User: Which sequence fits this backbone?
């Protein structure tokens, strides 16, 4: 890829557009911008892209195969299942393994495609836990849910937790450090040949919200994730085994988060499924400054609005705390979008 290789699809819809740009095999862009580090965004004709953008357009448009066994031709939901005392929203709610298992089964029954089990909080300012404690928290939950037929993701940045969780039945690794937090993690995932979600985070949980700075947040995050995908491919993983997450709220200001959400469709140019995690995050409370929104559990309306903004831009996986509510909102959004496409047709 050459400089200024960033292609941002705009005006996305469900119906094929003559002269338009296919996006992830399920959407069409009626317009596109070429983004640059050296100047403003410039509109480009999707039907007559410059030659140097042909490779990017091919990655952007290709249909996404199933990820960890889940079809990517329509949005799905990943339920958050934190087995921690200190997560930003639900810390302590599921520290008891039996409660976590029951809640996970309820999420799966409601329609969650994945259950993301985590035993170490990565909220801003969170302190790390010992490997033994993380394993004690997550392994019984992973094993029970996997035995019940649930598709379990292990949310960890530690290679040994990845290995033992997969042995216990996890089918997916979700790493907030994009396999950089442990020198053994990339080799471990490649050896296990398990799908992985690569997330962007600037800094560490203890320090990431201390004046996060970017040259261009969307392009910086894009470049980081592209580099991590390349590392996974070099290690022996296939592109179909990789999903990406721009890391809303992880080393980003409110402005950074909003710019990433606006330019979310840019990340389809990486050729991988796109996961979006906005559920209950603090940026919602910075937009809604009412006293109620200071509490993370009171941010459901904002979570749904941000999630649907992401789906409109093509996000395939929504990582959420409120599974039934998100699925209902998603069902209505999808029904309206499909009705609009049928009416135009």
Assistant:
């Amino acid at each position: 890829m050459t400089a200024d290789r960033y292609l941002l699809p705009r005006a996305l819809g469900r119906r094929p557009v003559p002269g338009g740009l296919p996006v992830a095999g399920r959407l069409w862009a009626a317009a596109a911008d070429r983004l640059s580090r050296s100047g403003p965004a410039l509109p480009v004709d999707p039907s007559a892209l410059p030659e140097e953008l042909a490779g990017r357009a091919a990655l952007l448009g290709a249909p996404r195969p199933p990820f960890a066994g889940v079809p990517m031709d329509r949005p799905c939901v990943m339920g958050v299942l934190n087995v921690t005392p200190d997560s930003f929203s639900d810390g302590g709610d599921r520290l008891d393994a039996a409660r976590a298992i029951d809640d996970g089964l309820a999420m799966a029954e409601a329609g969650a495609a994945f259950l993301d089990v985590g035993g170490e909080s990565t909220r801003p300012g969170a302190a790390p836990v010992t490997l033994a404690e993380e394993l004690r928290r997550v392994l019984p939950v992973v094993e029970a849910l996997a035995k019940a037929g649930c598709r379990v993701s292990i949310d960890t940045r530690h290679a040994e937790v990845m290995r033992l969780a997969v042995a216990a039945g996890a089918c997916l690794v979700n790493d907030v450090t994009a396999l950089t937090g442990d020198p053994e993690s990339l080799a471990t995932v490649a050896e296990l040949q398990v799908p992985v979600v690569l997330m962007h985070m600037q800094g560490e949980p203890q320090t990431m919200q201390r004046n996060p700075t970017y040259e261009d947040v969307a392009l910086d995050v894009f470049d980081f994730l592209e580099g991590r995908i390349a590392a996974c491919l070099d290690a022996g993983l296939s592109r179909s085994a990789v999903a990406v997450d721009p890391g809303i709220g992880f080393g980003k200001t409110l402005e950074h988060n909003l710019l990433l959400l606006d330019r979310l469709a840019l990340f389809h140019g990486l050729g991988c499924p796109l996961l979006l995690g906005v559920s209950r995050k603090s940026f919602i409370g910075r937009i809604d400054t009412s006293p109620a929104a200071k509490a993370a559990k009171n941010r459901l309306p904002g979570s749904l609005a941000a999630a649907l903004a992401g789906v409109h831009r093509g996000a395939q996986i929504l990582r959420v705390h409120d599974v039934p509510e998100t699925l209902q909102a998603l069902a209505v959004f999808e029904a309206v979008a499909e009705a609009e496409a049928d009416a135009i047709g």
The mean pLDDT is 93. The two ends are 36 Å apart (CA to CA). The longest strand covers residues 27-35.
